[in-house]
Design brief:
Shape: elongated
Family: Belongs to the tetraspanin (TM4SF) family.
Subcellular location: Membrane
Keywords: Disulfide bond, Glycoprotein, Membrane, Transmembrane, Transmembrane helix
Mean pLDDT: 73
Largest sheet: none
Pfam families: Tetraspanin (PF00335)
InterPro entries: Tetraspanin/Peripherin, Tetraspanin_animals, Tetraspanin_CS, Tetraspanin_EC2_sf
Length: about 220
């Protein structure tokens, strides 16, 4: 049986350990909330970008939402286990934390190594969507229209990209390129968004979705 002085020395250590673990668990829980929010935001705002990669890439927001939900539940479990000071709960929580850390580490490494390939894949698929554009409502053409309208751009780098397409030869620039309403069909470059741009991936978009795109890298066309 431990002496009273021994118990007095151990109690502050346990209290300190529980406080540190609670702070870490709270941060872990917050990351789950962030992932959940990003997943919902991605589903609402980034679906057009994902559709230019491939059909399976459109599941990325659902993966984020699912991952965020799991982390929130684990964080809640970890907080409960810490407050209860349950040994088996804390061991189970530590095991889950280790697995999640390893998954995030692998995802971060893949994201760093293949970041340029991911951007090039989106650029190449965007160029392919322009060449196959037909304005008949297929998902790639619809994605091109929505991106050009949302970002007030025309083409991959500028409006000249459209001049190599069959659609331009037949009808001119698509309506989503126009600065004014109802300017299509026409071929007047002064009436379209003609500023030179890079492939339309806003920095915020690129930052938020890169690591989850890595999970689908082997599936990208």
């Amino acid at each position: 049986m431990a002496s009273p002085s021994r118990r007095l020395q151990t109690k502050p250590v346990i209290t300190c350990f529980k406080s540190v673990l609670l702070i870490y668990t709270f941060i872990f829980w917050i990351t789950g909330v962030i992932l959940l929010a990003v997943g919902i935001w991605g589903k609402v705002s980034l679906e057009n970008y994902f559709s230019l990669l491939n059909e399976k890439a459109t599941n990325v927001p659902f993966v984020l939402i699912g991952t965020g939900t799991v982390i929130i539940l684990l964080g809640t479990f970890g907080c409960f286990a810490t407050c209860r000071a349950s040994a088996w709960m804390l061991k189970l929580y530590a095991m889950f934390l280790t697995l999640i850390f390893l998954v995030e580490l692998v995802a971060a490494i893949i994201g760093f190594v293949f970041r340029h390939e991911i951007k090039n894949s989106l650029k190449n698929n965007y160029e392919k969507a322009l060449k196959q554009y037909n304005a008949t409502g297929d998902y790639r053409s619809d994605a091109v229209d929505k991106i050009q309208s949302m970002l007030h751009c025309c083409g991959v780098t500028n409006y000249r990209d459209w001049k190599d397409t069959n659609y331009y030869s037949e009808k001119g620039f698509p309506e989503s390129c126009c600065k004014l309403e109802d300017c299509s069909p026409q071929r007047d470059a002064d009436k379209v968004n003609n500023e030179d741009i890079n492939i339309p991936i806003p920095n915020l978009v690129n930052y938020k979705i890169t690591w989850m795109e890595d999970l689908h890298l082997l599936q990208i066309d």
